[in-house]
Every structure is written in C-alpha cells, then in structure tokens.
Amino acid sequence: MPTTATINTPKGTIEIELFAEDCPETVGNWVKLAKDGFYDGLKFHRVIADFMIQGGCPLGTGTGDPGYKFDDEPSALAKKHTGPGILSMANAGPNTNGSQFFITHVACPWLDGKHGVFGKVTSGQNVVDTIAQGDTMDKVTINEG
C-alpha cells in the first residue's frame, strides 16, 4: 500500500499519494515535517489561478523554510508536471528545497526538471481548485502503507 497524505482545509480534504519508493529523500523530508506538525495551521501563501497553490512557508510570505535546505533528488526532477494535482517542491533555484510545496491546477511542462515531483492528488482536486490565497492547512496527516 502506498504512503498517502491527507491535507485538511476549511474548504475540504485533499488526498495525496506520495511517491515514497521513487523519491525517498523528498518524500521523507515532507513526511517528517508533516508528522512534526510543521504544516498544521500554515497558509497557502501563493495561489495563482490556472497554475497552482503553494504552501509550507512558516512565515506566510514565501521566504521561510524549516531551518535547512536540501538538494534536488534526481528521481523527483525526472518526474513530469503532466496535469492537475501534481505535488512538487517549491524552490528558489537548484538544491534549495525546504518545506514549501505546490499542487498544480493544470499541466506545467515548463517546471519539468526544475521542481521535484513527489506525489499526486488522488481525491480532492476540486478542493485544490477552490483554495484561495490565505486559506489554511488545518492539519496534514500521513498514512504509511
């Protein structure tokens, strides 16, 4: 059974399959942060219609991180932003991953090879599509298969 995540928001629930087998470092980082409660209560600080929703900044500004950065994982960079519901690391350039992530509304091929893909929405894309800037993640729960 795959590792999954549930993001509870005031607008509904987003269910995500995490690519733990293919991208163990990226998924491991995100899972640890989620289990530590890092994401609970944080805002989706950047929302762009017909593109994506972004969250995971403890400052709510897009400039924060968990106190460290980690390198891009080649297997995550190899995955493509093929459509709606792709979960990917937000970064400020190569090897600057931390806690910020985004979920796509549409295919975003221009991001391929620049942002590590590590999961996909399996239920709740309609919720992703209704998230507005400033909406919160009430709780992120991990279910390890």
TrEMBL record:
CDD domains: cyclophilin (cd00317). Gene3D superfamilies: Cyclophilin-like (2.40.100.10). GO terms for molecular function: peptidyl-prolyl cis-trans isomerase activity. Pfam families: Pro_isomerase. PPIases accelerate the folding of proteins. It catalyzes the cis-trans isomerization of proline imidic peptide bonds in oligopeptides. Residues 8-145 form the PPIase cyclophilin-type domain. Keywords: Isomerase, Rotamase. Its EC number is 5.2.1.8. It comes from Algisphaera agarilytica. GO terms for biological process: protein folding. Belongs to the cyclophilin-type PPIase family. The keyword ATP-binding does not apply. This is Peptidyl-prolyl cis-trans isomerase. It catalyses: [protein]-peptidylproline (omega=180) = [protein]-peptidylproline (omega=0). Signal peptide: none annotated. It comes from the Bacteria.
